[in-house]
Amino acid sequence: MARRGSFARKEASQTLLKVFKTAVEWDSWGQIEEAHKAYKDLCQRIMNIQNEANLDVRPEEVEALKDLLACFKVRILEIKNDKNHGLGLSGIQGLEAFVNTLLVATDPGPFPIDISAISKDLVSSSELSTFTDRLSRHGSFDTTSMKHTSLSRKGDILISLHISKMGFKDVSTFADPTLTISIVDSNGVIIEQPDEIKATEISEPFHVVFNREVVFNTPMRLIENNFGFFFEFKHFKAKKKKVSTKAWCFLEQDEIQGESGKEICLEIYKKPTDFTRKTFNLLSVKPLYLHIRVDMIRV
């Protein structure tokens, strides 16, 4: 499953899953008071998830979070009344996989429970509507203004990449070439993905020229040793009327080694992009590379 998000998304997802597992554990042990408190904590975290985690919540995520909120509130009533209202412990346990992927998956899939069949007259519809309206209204953050400040603090070091040019055997067929750059952890989870950059020129026959700077919002202290940087070259295919990934490159975190001004040439691999880093097939036997420079910025 392709995964997405920022460091904040991953952190919020892990926190939500941790509290969820705690609640289910107390519930399965019959510890009513502890389970009741943990489910209330889950509800509160969902209600405040946008303000606390600064997440850019997508419309489909708003609906899923609303359904999760309804499920937890129903389970609270079931525990309180010692009565099954159609959900039960087994229903809650069946939500774990969905909770685990909701904030970090490109498509976590449909909600696993028909919430309309169990929540009617049990959960305040006005409360759920208010929750939906609040997240929908404030679901878009100005990422440009947050780019250098939301995760960093004084003294942190940010990584700046100067993307120079990328070599191909023949560049004449490329229309609207772009480069998408991502920080990805060892599990293939995208930690950060800035706006894609567009080519400034095509220098036939061998190079697509970018000459663009990309500064990551995630500071070095949060970039673990097993994280990597991915570069996906994309272009528009007129016949198929879609944007297609042509090739990709990969930079290991330890190749940077905290050196500023370091020039690096990266091998170019055939599509599809493998965020798990298991398959690397060269696009060409010719010595064609992506040319970049790594700089360190102290904030």
Automatic annotation (TrEMBL):
Reply yes or no: does the keyword Cytoplasm apply.
no
Q: Which UniProt keywords apply?
A: Developmental protein
Where is each C2 Aida-type domain found? 147-297
Domain of life here?
A: Eukaryota
Query: GO MF annotations for this entry?
Result: phosphatidylinositol binding
What's an example GO cellular component term for this entry?
Answer: membrane
Does the entry feature the keyword rRNA processing, yes or no? Answer: no
Q: Which family does it belong to?
A: Belongs to the AIDA family.
Name used for this protein in its record:
Axin cytoskeletal adhesion-like protein
